[in-house]
Write a structure and sequence with these properties.
three-stranded antiparallel sheet, 19 helices
């Protein structure tokens, strides 16, 4: 077709159309930018034209009391926490016989305690069985039987015979003390002594456990009875002649028993008040804090730190106790085994509270807005999302359950945490292993909720907050004009 003069060719027309589109887009962007600038200027004008506050002293900021009140409450709660642990331990040792027996039972299996108990029982038996008199009686009987040479031989080795009998008694006593029968007697004696412990601390006295010369002592009568039976069964019939023994075995020094009794009565009275008061102070401090998340982190770390202080105090008390016990009363290794066994439940309790404090602090920190917390959450979510994607590619679908879980994630998380906390509270005497397993179970529950629930359903944005540029329709892109039918033109051969 012959192009008329002054008519643009097709390439020039298309270039012009594209240039027009670009110019239209630039104008739209420029208009939107001007609109945003106008909104910013209007906001600044509103701020500048706001009425100035009345002249006079600047009003004080409200809530300035919150920070000091929170700090004082949390500090007091942390100070009362170790006292509460000691109070609960003392109350359990006194009011719960099974708990007391469970605390004392391992002592009979400790070699230092076995050696000290064997030595005390052997000394009591040897002092009441005159082996030298028995030897002289044997010599007399041999002489009367006209066994002069044999009686002279016994007389020559009387010292060795007496030493051998005493050594044999000591060996037999050591075997009896290490036998299961003596372990049973130990448990029964301590169960009976529990009532005596109550009498000692309450100031009544009497019972199997008593106080003599500033020492808390345990009666050896049931143990010596068991040894007499075992010696008689081994053929040593002279053991039947051992009289009733009222000897005692020292457990620990009690020079300040009167103060201990006063403290016991006070702690027994406050055994439930102290833990509740400590918990109430910590909770009140968290509530009063300006940032409750930071308050919770501070309270949890303070609780953990107070448990560390209690552990250090127990170590110092151990050194003081071992230095105060004379070796003639109780060997150092036996005294150490006794102390460590008695305070093992205190150590177990402080370890549990230490773990709880660290877990709560970590949980409060990881749910916060800090960069590290966000990074950790993003990494965990990414890992769970990768695992969920692999399961979906393998054909695993959660269906309606997953949709419901995703829509109720916050409620399910709070429920999981609440259930684990209730289990921990009502466990009775949770150990460190129980606390660790509860933490693992909680993490698994939260992971399962995230894995099944997937992403939370997206919420539709209401029209009022839709950006204005998305509401304006885009200009229609002009389509290239369809070729118009041209009038019949003659062909070259026409």
């Amino acid at each position: 077709m012959v192009q008329g003069p002054g008519e643009p060719d097709g390439a020039e027309a298309e270039h012009g159309e594209h240039a027009g589109h670009a110019e239209h887009a630039d104008h739209a962007e420029q208009a939107e930018l001007e609109r945003l600038r106008a909104e910013v200027r209007a906001l600044r004008a509103d701020r500048d034209t706001a009425p100035e506050p009345a002249s006079g002293p600047r009003p004080r900021r409200r809530g300035r009391w919150r920070t000091p009140v929170a700090v004082v409450a949390i500090v007091l709660g942390c100070v009362l926490a170790p006292v509460s642990v000691l109070g609960v331990w003392a109350a359990n040792q006194v009011s719960n016989t099974d708990r007391y027996v469970a605390n004392m039972t391992p002592l009979i299996s400790e070699p230092p305690i076995q050696h000290a108990l064997s030595a005390a029982i052997t000394t009591q038996i040897v002092n009441r069985v005159d082996t030298q008199a028995l030897t002289n009686q044997a010599i007399t009987q041999l002489s009367q039987a006209h066994l002069t040479r044999l009686s002279d031989l016994v007389r020559s080795f009387a010292g060795q015979i007496t030493s051998g009998i005493n050594s044999f008694i000591g060996t037999a006593v050591a075997r009896v003390v290490a036998s299961p029968a003596m372990a049973t007697v130990w448990v029964q004696a301590n169960r009976t002594a529990h009532a005596g412990l109550v009498r000692v601390l309450s100031g009544q006295g009497g019972g199997t456990l008593d106080v003599q010369n500033g020492k808390v002592v345990l009666s050896l009568a049931p143990f010596i009875t068991q040894v007499k039976q075992q010696l008689t069964a081994r053929g040593l019939t002279f053991a039947n002649n051992i009289p009733a023994v009222s000897a005692t075995f020292p457990l620990f020094e009690a020079p300040n028993l009167q103060k201990a009794q006063q403290g016991y009565r006070l702690i027994t009275t406050l055994k439930w008040v102290l833990p509740l008061l400590s918990l109430a102070l910590l909770a009140g401090g968290v509530w009063a804090a300006r940032s409750r998340r930071r308050g919770l982190i501070g309270a949890a770390l303070g609780l953990a730190a107070s448990m560390l202080v209690l552990a250090v105090a127990l170590a110092i008390a151990r050194a003081i106790y071992l230095n105060s016990v004379p070796q003639s009363v109780l060997p150092p290794d036996a005294a150490a085994a006794l102390y460590d066994t008695l305070v093992r439940f205190i150590k177990e309790g402080l370890r549990v509270l230490l773990l709880v404090g660290l877990v709560v602090a970590a949980g409060a920190f990881l749910t916060g807005p800090s960069r590290a917390a966000v990074s950790v959450r993003r990494a965990v979510t990414s890992g769970i999302g990768w695992l969920r994607a692999r399961g979906e590619r393998a054909g695993l679908r959660t269906g309606p359950v997953g949709a419901w879980t995703g829509a109720h994630k916050p409620l399910l998380r709070v429920t999981a945490v609440g259930v684990v906390v209730l289990i921990f509270i009502f466990w009775g005497q949770p150990t460190l292993a129980v606390a660790v397993w509860l933490v693992i179970v909680l993490l698994l529950l939260l992971g399962v909720i995230e894995l099944i629930g997937g992403r939370a359903p997206e919420v539709a944005i209401p029209p009022a907050v839709v950006p204005r540029q998305t509401a304006t329709p885009e200009p229609a892109t002009p389509q290239p004009a369809s070729p118009q039918p041209t009038p019949h033109q003659p062909t070259p051969h026409q």
